[in-house]
Amino acid sequence: MPSPAPARLLLTALAGMASPLPAQLPTARLDALFPPGLQLGTEASVALTGLDLEDAGHLLFSDPGLSATHQEGLHFKITASAGLRPGFYEVRAAGRYGLSASRLLAIGAFPEVTDTGTHDSPEQALLLSPPITVNGTTAADAADFFRFTASKGQRLLLSCAAERIDSPLNAVLTIFNKAGRELATAHRSHSNDPAIDFTAPEDGEYIVKLHDIVWQGGPTSLYRLTIAPPSDPNQIAALPVPLSGALCGWMPQAPRRTFPDPAPQASAAHPLDLPIVVDAPPASLDWFEFTGTKGRQIMIDVLSHRLGYPSDWLLQIFKITRDAAGAEQSEKIAEFDDTAAPPGMESLLLGSRDPSGALRCPEDGRYRIRLADRFQTNQPYQLLLRDPQPGFSVVAFSESPATKGAALHRWSPLLRRGGSALLKVAVLRHDGFAAPVTLKPAGLPEGVSASEITLPGNLSSAALVLRATPEAKSWNGRIQLTGTSGGLSVPAREIIPRWTVGNNAAERLSLRLSSEGCVLAVTDTEAAPLMIAPTETKVYEGSLAGTIEIPVKFTRDPSHKGFKGEWEAVLMGLPGLRQAPVVKPAADAADAKLVLDLKTKDGNTFAPGNWSLHASAHGVIQWQPNDKIPVRELAEAAYSAPIQIHIDPSPVLLTAPATLAIAPGAKAELPLKLTRRYGFAETVSLEFAGPTGRKGLSAAALTIPAAAADAVLAIEAAPDTPPGSHACFLQAKCLWNGETLPWSLPLTLEVKP
């Protein structure tokens, strides 16, 4: 098919989109390179396709072995040094509107050809001489055909790289003999791309057909078809920069073992010594057996779907015993299925169909594992059995101003003067890791700021806002985001959608990791159209089950044409806040009042303490940088500087003396003072909790009437209460806005004869 001409290609042209997507303020977006790869040790002229690539005269690569010379317009000459290894490398375009999200460029070891003709029938099939790689694109409602000659018994691997090079092409590969009889077909063999391991049944010519499974196509539906001996070490078969790298890259080192064949029968289960990593051969059913000791905790993972295979494994564990007659008995004691995504990050596909879990052996003895692939894909996989090593990984996603609902955009942040951008961050905890994690940005250019965020142990997602001052200067490059906890320090990896989708629930979506961390661009040639800030700089206070009102103000840049319709303003970035109420100020509104509802609902879970959050506003602006360009309606978003809040565990401040003296066999009165806040005036219930394992200290439950400010709790010590200091608690609770709020107050009782 003809190569795509460089153009401002509309995102709606991407294959698989269900509905048009709103455009955003100009930000460099690189949608395709053609050809999408070249042979190592050679150079090739490459054309870029994308949006807002004005003045894109520079390409950035993830490896110094790649370089580019700007030719004309969106054409570059790329050189791949002979010292590179075959594989996939990232490339970004830099221009007037910042630094694009990366695309993948493939570097191969075989001679290459670019398909620029019409080969949409067997009669017009392009002749190939293996080993070879052909670069092409598919058109809608059409297939590409190729032909090659092979000798009887000659083995060749036909591998189509499409999704692996960030192409939305959902490729199907079929091979025919010269008479037109189908010999093999493949779809999503590995990494969602097709591959056929072919052995020629006779001397002669063979025809290869390549097309999209739903017959879509277009200039971004790129592919690289490689035909070469499968044993060639230069054949590219690995998944490039997989998203699974964030999920399983932390796996600890352990002895490895490979079995030549699967064990499809329980009686032939493979014996294992723990810990171990099993590199299993292709299978759809496999059995393993190990010896466990009582109380030992074993972490279990299967890696298959996370490695790019179209599998769905189910893992079951059986305890093996023998009855009095010596007959074997089998009891299922555990079952592990899919691995869920962290709450709040489901749209980023951080879950998988791979099973993961922990087994604590109930007793000494033999244990047997049954692994079954529901999809019967007969693909290789890894089985990991190991001791716990609690830890975490960190991934970040740059959110477009047009991202709303189930949309997911290819995006790279560009800060205009006074502007802001959002990074969604996920902490992927494993092996029971539940300590707080602090996210620390670093390497920011002068004039750009972002605050640290600490996630408590029960939360895994956060929003990080990058903000530029009105005086910030143009810059682009890589920044660092690191998660730290105790002695652990983990760099964040950036998640990149391979293509943009309007509805990730209905459209095919694929994500990968960047190998370069996170990137950022700043421009001083334009001002941000809107800024949002709290009306006052202070700490806003409230309690669980209550509300916190935060007035905000809007500042608009006068050089822009104005705003259209209502905006949507919301509070965001507070750990545990998954859904906040939306306020819709008018386009010309100068201020708004945002309300943080601290009730446990809509998936929200909050913790007392001091926190930071942000105010955000999303809407449509009318953009016209000069009189020669017509007005465009574009989505835009603004995020405030951190807003400090304090959340109390209840609307009641209960105070009491820290210590109270009491004699054995006597009573003592503990004076209590209640400060009612945030409009609370109801009753408060109080119970005394004596020291654990100690008897002799007690008090009757107390109900403090509504509106009362003072109370007395009578505490009694039995005659045999041992002398000394006793750590106790006052356990209080109240009903506030329909929720029961418990909290506690420590108290030390000094028992003196």
Description:
The chain has 753 residues and is mainly β. It has five domains: 1-184 and 195-231, Sandwich (Jelly Rolls); 253-388, Sandwich (Jelly Rolls); 407-523, Immunoglobulin-like (Sandwich); 529-648, Immunoglobulin-like, CATH 2.60.40; 652-751, Immunoglobulins (Immunoglobulin-like, Sandwich). It is built from one helix and 58 strands. The strands form twelve sheets. Strands 34-36-32-30-39-40 form a six-stranded mixed β-sheet. Strands 31, 33, 35, 37, 38 and 41 form a six-stranded mixed β-sheet that branches. Strands 2, 4, 7, 8 and 9 form a five-stranded mixed β-sheet that branches. A hairpin with a 2-residue loop joins strand 7 (87-95) and strand 8. The chain is flat and about 105 Å long. It starts with 28 loop residues before the first strand and ends with a strand.
Bin the strand percentage: over 45%
Uncertain residue segments: 1-20, 236-240
Strand adjacency order, main sheet = 34-36-32-30-39-40
Average pLDDT, all residues? 89
What's the alpha carbon Rg, rounded to whole Å?
31 Å
Largest sheet: 6 strands, mixed
Q: What is the CATH T-level topology of the largest domain?
A: Jelly Rolls
Quick one: overall form?
Answer: flat
Query: For the terminal residues, how far apart are their CA atoms?
Result: 97 Å
The name of the CATH architecture of the largest domain is Sandwich
Structural class: mainly beta
DSSP summary, beta strand count: 58
